């Protein structure tokens, strides 16, 4: 019977030893990442000089290796220091209009018990970075940095992260620490104040009640005393007999107004980028007016990378969320199937299409679809600098706008 000798169980390594090794590895990785491209080139040159000195024995190579190592050691020592800071950003406006300004306040605080060293604060702003000097901060001391932001063009800008950097005078070592994350800054298109839209206004027994009180509608609200000019047909004679004075009816406005707002996002429909911006401004102004009027709005705007032929439906919960989405609209370079106006939903009360001066806006191409649809169609063409013009046909309004300020005049003059 063979006896098997039992092997001793392997000894477990102390947890402190494993933790210390991981800590050393992380520190080494952090040190390597803090060496700039110039510093790595210097380290490589020093290593090559040291390797070449072994077979040749040239003192010049040894001097080069020692010089490179000394410069790296000098850079490492001069870059040491406390970088522990807390950063808080406050922006007086998270949503800007093109041409607007905002003030960004960055507050840096030293929460530790040791003073921080001098360094630089980097704030990523879109594709660029804003650099500001940061003095040494005593424990508990704070420092404010104020920046003026100007919205020059429409878009969605990444604001942040905020970083703190410190290095040596030679540029060999650059320590960097991320203090805050990024946030979004929405730059809205310019809009113009518009009068309430009357086109496509329908009243329905099952419609949504609107705000305010009107003198003639379907949903009864209350009675009020008669004033000169009131229609005598609205006098409520039974209440008049009780009150001893003429009483007339008032109504709540019941509306069935579902508006479909479409932006032609094809780049070939516009002469240049400025004309496309004009179309976006018209589109955004009309969308805000529809939302302020309490209309049910479906807003379509193709995105550059959206494979959907009919584009993306923008959020329409409120004007701000709609304008936030308008900030990210970009023209598409490829062709796509434009929406057929004849296929508008049955409950649509008004269809508005905004295009450019090179877009397809021939009335003959749209009349058949408009005639079959119960809802009117407004075709607005942005032609930068052109004189405004208006053509109306049954079920169709065809207009050319050279400036966003022409839009209120169009809405006031249309039949």
Automatic annotation (TrEMBL):
Keywords: Membrane, Transmembrane, Transmembrane helix
Location of region: Disordered: 1-22, 301-320
Record-annotated membrane-spanning stretches: 31-54, 61-83
Compositionally biased intervals (Low complexity): 1-17
Positions of the DUF58 domain: 223-301
InterPro entries, per the entry: DUF58
Stored Pfam families: DUF58
Name this protein carries in UniProt: DUF58 domain-containing protein
Organism of origin: Bifidobacterium kimbladii
């Amino acid at each position: 019977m063979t006896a098997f000798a039992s092997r001793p169980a392997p000894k477990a390594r102390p947890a402190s030893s494993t933790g210390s090794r991981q800590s050393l590895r992380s520190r080494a990785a952090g040190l390597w990442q803090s060496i700039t491209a110039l510093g790595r080139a210097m380290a490589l040159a020093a290593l090559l000089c040291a390797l070449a000195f072994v077979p040749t024995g040239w003192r010049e190579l040894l001097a080069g290796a020692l010089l490179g190592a000394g410069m790296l050691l000098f850079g490492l020592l001069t870059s040491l220091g406390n970088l522990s800071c807390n950063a808080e950003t406050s922006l007086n406006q998270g949503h800007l209009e093109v041409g607007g300004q905002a003030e960004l306040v960055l507050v840096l605080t030293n929460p530790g018990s040791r003073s921080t060293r001098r360094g630089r604060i980097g704030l990523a702003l879109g594709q660029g970075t804003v650099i500001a000097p940061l003095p040494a901060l005593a424990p508990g001391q704070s420092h404010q940095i104020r920046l003026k932001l100007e919205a020059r063009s429409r878009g969605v800008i990444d604001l942040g992260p905020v970083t703190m950097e410190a290095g040596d005078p030679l540029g060999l070592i650059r320590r960097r620490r991320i203090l805050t994350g990024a946030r979004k800054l929405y730059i809205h298109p310019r809009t113009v104040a518009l009068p309430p839209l009357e086109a496509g206004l329908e009243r329905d027994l099952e419609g949504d009640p609107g705000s305010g009180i009107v003198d003639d509608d379907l949903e009864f609200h209350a009675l009020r005393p008669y004033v000169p000019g009131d229609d005598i047909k609205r006098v409520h004679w039974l209440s008049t007999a009780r009150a001893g004075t003429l009483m007339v009816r008032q109504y709540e406005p019941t509306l069935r107004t579902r508006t479909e707002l479409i932006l032609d996002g094809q780049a070939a429909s516009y002469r240049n980028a400025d004309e496309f911006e004009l179309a976006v401004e018209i589109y955004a102004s009309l969308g805000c007016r529809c939302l302020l009027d309490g209309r049910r709005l479906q807003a379509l705007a193709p995105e550059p990378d959206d494979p959907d032929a009919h584009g993306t439906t923008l959020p329409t919960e409120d004007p701000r969320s709609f304008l936030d989405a308008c900030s990210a609209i970009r023209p598409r370079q490829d062709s796509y199937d434009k929406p057929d106006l004849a296929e508008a939903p049955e409950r649509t009360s008004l269809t508005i299409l905004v295009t450019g001066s090179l877009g397809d806006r021939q009335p003959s191409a749209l009349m058949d679809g408009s005639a079959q649809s119960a809802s009117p169609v407004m075709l607005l063409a942005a032609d930068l600098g052109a004189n405004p013009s208006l053509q109306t046909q049954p079920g169709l309004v065809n207009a050319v706008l050279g400036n966003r300020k022409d839009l209120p005049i169009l809405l006031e003059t249309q039949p």
